[in-house]
Amino acid sequence: MSHTTERCATCGQEAVAIAMHVDGTDLVMRSCDNCDTRTWALGGAPIELDTALDEVGLRAGRRR
What we know:
Layout: E1 2-7, E2 14-22, E3 25-31, E4 38-42, E5 45-47, H1 49-58
Antiparallel strand pairs: 1-2, 2-3, 3-4, 4-5
């Protein structure tokens, strides 16, 4: 798992991106404390929170 600092796509303020490899694919959560925006992406494609949770749950034993 790793994290980086980026700019929020909504407000332009500093945001954090946390990445985790799930079965060989990057799952990334981006979070902005300024405007409370949170987004998730799997392999670079935007996904909903429910999908992110399903991916982690389905592959819990195969995180790298």
